[in-house]
Structure formats: C-alpha cells, structure tokens
Amino acid sequence: MNVSKLVEIYYAVDEFLIKFMPYMESHLLPTSDRKPTRTCSLILSEIMTILIAFHVIGFRNFKLYYIHLQQFHSNDFCKLVSYSRFISLVQRTVVPFYFFSQSLSKTRTGCYFMDSTAIKVCNIKRAYAHKVFKTIASKGKTTTGWFYGIKLNLIVNDLGEIMNFSLTTGKSNDRWPVENLCKNLIGKVFADKGYLSKELFEKLMGKGIELITQIRKNMKNAFMPIWDRLMLRKRSIIETIIDQLKNISQIEHSRHRSIPNFIVNLIAGITAYSLKEKKPAIDNIYTTGLQ
Q1: Per-residue confidence (pLDDT) for residue 215, from 0 to 100
Q2: What is the pTM of this model?
C-alpha cells in the first residue's frame, strides 16, 4: 500500500473531524448512562482512514486486509488493536462518516444523472432465513431480476461527482427519494423510464429542476431538444460509477453481521470513490449546450 495515499486520506479525514466533532458533541442529547472510561489506542481519524483505504487498494476480504496492515503498516498508526476490537469500533464512525462524505467537493454543474441499484444482502433463495437485515431489507425487482436487499439511490453530475445518495427498501418505488436527492440542486436531471411521473415532474419544476426521461412505448412522442436527447444517451456515466462502487469499492457483499457496519462500509466505499482524482466524466463538447 502506498503510504503517501494513507497520509493523504488521513489528513482529509482529520481536518474534517477537528471541526466537526466539537459541533456534534455540543448537539448530543444528555444521558444519565455511565460514560466509558476505557480509551482506545486508535483515534477516530485512524479508524476512518483504515476503512476508506480498504476500498482504495483492492482487497476483497477485510480481515485479510487488516492482518496486512498489522504486518506491514503497524508503524503508520498509533497502535493497531485486534481485529475483533476494531470491528466493534466501526459503529462509532457512522455519523462522522456520513457528514464527511457530504462535505467532499461537489460541483453544481446544472447537469445531473439519477439512478438506483440493488444492494443484495444475501441470495434471494435464503431470504426467509436471513436475520441481520430482516428489519430493513425486502424483495425487489430490477431489470436483471429479483433480489433480496436494499436499494441505493444516487444522483451524480457530469463530472462524475456523487451529489447525493439515499437508501430505501428493495421493494420501494424509485420515485420516492427523488425530491430529497435533488434538494438544493438546480438544472436538468436525466433518468430512465422508471422515474417518469407527471406529478413528480411538476413538483421538481417548481423547485427549478427539469426531470428528463425517455418516454414509454405506449406514449405519444414529444418534442425534445437535441441536447437533451444527447444527454439521455450519456446516462451510462452513472452506471459506470455504480459499477466502480460495487467492483472496486466493494459496497456490496453478504458478509455483514450488523446494520451499522453495513452502512459504514457503504459510505466508506462512496467516500473512497469521491476522493479519487480521476472519475468518469462527460466531455465538455456535450455539456456546453446545457449551460
């Protein structure tokens, strides 16, 4: 593993936490529970750095990755704890991780692409016996078939930057989280036929967002500017991003033993992607007409 990359990730995380943690602690509700007196040898910045780096270097098994750190990078951290202890510490990063991912640079270009993807938590044949995600997972259907799990909803810009994301159950309608995903955005959003809705179109238009989708076969053809047609054909950019999240960042696997750790792994994967210097992007020649 490149040590300079570790340092780069750690610096970005630590600079954020220095400002965020005092703010978060000042807004926590008071509790009468006894506070833990045991201090951890790993600070929060190091825990988050380890989780992000896992999605950067290409290991497919987190335990083997952590053993690799213990053997070859023990000097790069204050004091690495045991694997089981580290897994128990992961849950502490849920809130900081989410806000860190939201704080990363996101350019409001006015040109966005929206889609959802299935996050399978187990083989659908074993859904009846699955317990870990029983409260949030459900059966759903995509163009590739049935699955048991959760849906990840994404909106990205033409530079390949993830603007926002949300999680819904596997059976949820893709249109449900759209208004929340598009919050604080202005411009054109390109999506597939699954997002086609007159009511949703009018709601978004009132907020300065034009939702552009392909029409269904049983609908009359409507006039569409040539630039909109071209950008609809460029929706593959978000499919490329989803592919990288699943196959490079590894946000989808069936070895999770708790919901918080699943959420941390997913956000860490999205964060690792967001920190990449080179992302899938659309040439300026196509986006110029949308300015």
Answers
A1: 75
A2: 0.90
